[in-house]
C-alpha cells in the first residue's frame, strides 16, 4: 500500500513486469465430480491435467496440485497465487475449466494492482469466486 492508501504490485514488492511476476495455479486433485464419484482419475486430477495442457506454452504460469483445498461443497476447486498480491480461491469448476484458469492467470500475471481484473475474466471465474485473500502487507493491526 502506498502513502495514498492505494495498492500496487510495485508497492507490495512485486514488479509489474510479466517476466518477474509469475502466477501459480493450485488445483485440488482430490476433488470429485458433481455426482461425488470415487472413480479414478478424480475430476480434480482431470482439471489439473487440462490446466497444465492449457498453460504449457506460458512460462509465467506454474500449475501445482494439492490433495484438498477444503472446499468440497463447491466441488472442483483451484486457487491463483502471485507473490505480494491478492490470492483467489475458485469453486464450481469442471474438469474442462483448465483454459479458464489459465486465462485468469494470464490476466493476473500482467495486473499492475495485484488484482485479477473483472473485465475479461472467464464467467466460471466470476461465478465461482469463493474468496479473495489479501497479501500480508495489506493487513492492518
Key traits:
single chain; 141 residues; alpha+beta; 21% strand; globular; DUF1636; Metal-binding protein
Describe the protein in words.
A five-stranded mixed sheet has the order 2-1-3-4-5. Residues 1-19 have low confidence and may be disordered. The chain has one domain. A hairpin with a 5-residue loop joins strand 3 (76-81) and strand 4 (87-93). With 141 residues, the protein is of the alpha+beta class. The chain is 21% helix and 21% strand.
Please specify the SSE layout and strand pairing.
Layout: E1 23-28, H1 43-55, E2 61-66, E3 76-81, E4 87-93, H2 98-109, H3 123-127, E5 129-133
Parallel strand pairs: 1-2
Antiparallel strand pairs: 1-3, 3-4, 4-5
Helix pairs in contact: 1-2
Organism: Mesorhizobium hungaricum
Protein name: Metal-binding protein
Low-confidence stretches: 1-19
Shape: globular
- Specify the helix fraction band: 10-25%
Q: Please give the order of strands in the largest beta sheet.
A: 2-1-3-4-5
The string of secondary-structure elements, in order, is EHEEEHHE
- Number of E-state strands: 5
- Work out the helix count: 3
Protein name: Metal-binding protein
InterPro entries: DUF1636
Organism: Mesorhizobium hungaricum
Amino acid at each position: 500500500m502506498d502513502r495514498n492508501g492505494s495498492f500496487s504490485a510495485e508497492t507490495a514488492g512485486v514488479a509489474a513486469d510479466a517476466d518477474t511476476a509469475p502466477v501459480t495455479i493450485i488445483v485440488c486433485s482430490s476433488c470429485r465430480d458433481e455426482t461425488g464419484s470415487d472413480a479414478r482419475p478424480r475430476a480434480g486430477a482431470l482439471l489439473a491435467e487440462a490446466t497444465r495442457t492449457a498453460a504449457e506454452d506460458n512460462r509465467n504460469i506454474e500449475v501445482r496440485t494439492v490433495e484438498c483445498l477444503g472446499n468440497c461443497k463447491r466441488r472442483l476447486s483451484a486457487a491463483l497465487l502471485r507473490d505480494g498480491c491478492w490470492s483467489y480461491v475458485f469453486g464450481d469448476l469442471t474438469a474442462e475449466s483448465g483454459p479458464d484458469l489459465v486465462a485468469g492467470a494470464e490476466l493476473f500475471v500482467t495486473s499492475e494492482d495485484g488484482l485479477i481484473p473483472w473485465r475479461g475474466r472467464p464467467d466460471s471465474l466470476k461465478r465461482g469466486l469463493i474468496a479473495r485473500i489479501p497479501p500480508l502487507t495489506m493487513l492492518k493491526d
